[in-house]
Design brief:
Chains A, B, C, D: One of its GO terms (molecular function) is protein methyltransferase activity. The structure is a homotetramer. Helix content of chain A is 28%, strand content 26%. By secondary structure, the first copy, chain A, is α/β, with parallel strands linked by helices. Chain A has an 8-stranded mixed β-sheet with strand order 3-2-1-4-5-8-6-7, with helices on both faces. In chain A, helix 4 packs parallel to helix 5. Chains in contact: A-B, A-C, A-D, B-C, B-D, C-D. At the A-B interface, helix 1 and strand 6 of A face helix 1 and strand 6 of B.
């Protein structure tokens, strides 16, 4: 196994990059702790193909690329407010095996190689269409991971995944992090995130 | 960067290994989700030295070794009930850069190289003594991560770390995971884990 | 305002009765903390009519009856394993204004006065039918509160409530309580409960 | 049991009053859900004496007074920013058995009757002094309930309570509540609150 180039490891960790290090639109990105759990749920291995749909500021793609430098990662994002920051972040963290696909999924997916893993961090209003497309293309032992912060996305995702015959696990992550308040440490809650993992075949 | 050997990537993911895959004593091990966050907090980089004190069944060391195959990892554990399973797990997951140190910390730490990262998953009754030793040996830009499941360990850890002049962040992780209940998905809570990260220098 | 009898206040609090005080089948009852939040969501007032559908061991009805001794409460439960304990509990806590209705809802609801408040702690497989009936009978400024512990009940409840034109608030409660572990205090998580509150009219 | 006056039940519930109904300084008050659990932990009964130390906007005192109209409640608060709102709220909710004590505890406690229950929602910097005073005055079967939102208050409270020989239970409450986000329901987390309950005697 030979890595022909390497991520920016002198300065940044493989995973656990501080939230402030990511350029972002209105602080809309996956928080450090939830990102770590999301990567765990994606069960990344050596040279997989990963689609990151609604890549936002790219924080998940970037850490995933640190984990699998031989993988093929595609960050699909159309919203121009995100794309600017996404490009900055891919540069900053030398995420050279992440290819930016500027498209509004499910558009743009046709030209990509079949995925082993699909992460959906943001689906706009197209969740059903995206999942239909993903379902056709996902490899047999593949995995879909969806992060939902609204009850509606949670409900719709499960409905659509069950319709397509997936097994489903849902994990709800509640994180609170201390932050200095005068000389005290206040526990500050992050909004909960529902991480849905779906796969075909026996449970 | 050349990896001269590789972890068992054909079968298992780098991180996110299923809990059931680890041999363990009374199911006492760090759960998948908390393990992922713990690894993120450890901010692992290429060839660091990591001490895993109270390594238990070794799940954190094993995934850390997948992340930094060039790192030097030391799993310190004395409890014979754990050691048996720890050895099995290191074998199973080909964690070749994890060295088992059968000692009751702070014993056994003297012979190890100075650490860049220290993870304390279990400290027995020796937390203060261990932190004293760790504080003398930790490199300047090093990090200590402690997982606490009791209020007492949380309180003692913070007191001792502040005494030694560390900056501290505490994160509380509450995870609930769906499990099948007849045809339903019941949300089942895991006990919360407090992940304490400590470092010297400016906040 | 004259109370003609009084609950067993010498021994027990109005709300916050210890879980262990309730006779129960397989410890299936609403925990103290979630019970308190449920009662808050029910917004109880002086002489309301409350239907407690799937009353289980009756813990919600009992504390509700302490709060509104002039109210008319109906505990609807058919499962004979629960009914035995429910009767014991109603006796023990002198919940004299709770009437036990041994029926499998929506059966049995026809004979009851129109409700101001409806609490659904357990709906068996009949959630849709129950909500249809409840919707026909609930007074104009009434409230429905549903506790869900499975994703399926959460999803179905919301779907049915929205179908009937209700405004909805969902609260997810995660409680961990210390319990002695040797000389330590272990944080032990209770399974999360989703408390759904629904009402007609403007949000 | 005769109530000689009654709370404003026509408009407001006994417990579960909406957060927005309370006048407050910078929205610093105990949230509806946590208030309910706090009241449950206080195990209120008919005619108890309750000290509410650091009463803030008075939300706990007000709902407690609804529960025990025959009780004697003392809301101790000095901060003038809070006192203004506290007075408004006591008026609005007709909490006639709550006496406002404008003092900076432990000052002002000397003149009050011995308490059956003590709630500490805010202790300023005087936690140890307050607990010393409370410990001298609390009746034999009394209860102390403390709400902590910082790690420091949590730690100090437990230390001081154990020093005075109390048994302790700590409950951590994590609440997330849906709020409308365009047409979706976003789960919004409230900061976690640690509710500490302490009592003398056998566990």
């Amino acid at each position: 196994l030979i890595r022909t180039w390497e991520p920016n490891l002198a300065q940044y960790p493989l995973i656990g990059i501080e939230d402030e290090e990511f350029a972002s639109f209105k602080k809309l990105f996956t928080r450090q702790e939830v990102r770590a759990v999301t990567l765990a749920k994606l069960k990344l291995q050596n040279d997989l193909v990963l689609w990151d749909i609604g890549a936002g500021s790219g924080s998940v793609s970037i850490e995933a690329s640190n984990l699998i430098p031989n993988g093929k990662l595609f960050a699909i994002e159309k919203n121009s407010q995100y794309v600017t920051f996404l490009k900055q972040n891919l540069d900053k963290f030398c995420a050279r095996n992440v290819k930016l696909v500027e498209a509004y999924a499910p558009e743009g997916l046709d030209d990509l190689p079949d995925p082993d893993r699909v992460f959906i961090g943001g689906a706009g209003g197209n969740l059903e269409e995206i999942l239909e497309q993903v379902d056709r293309r996902l490899k047999g032992d593949g995995l879909i991971v969806i992060n939902a912060v609204t009850l509606d996305t949670l409900t719709k995702s499960i409905e659509a995944l069950e319709y397509h015959g997936y097994q489903i696990e849902v994990v709800c992550i509640n994180v609170s992090r201390t932050k200095p308040l005068t000389e005290f440490k206040l526990f500050e809650a992050h909004n909960p995130v529902y991480i849905i993992t779906a796969w075909k075949g026996a449970e």
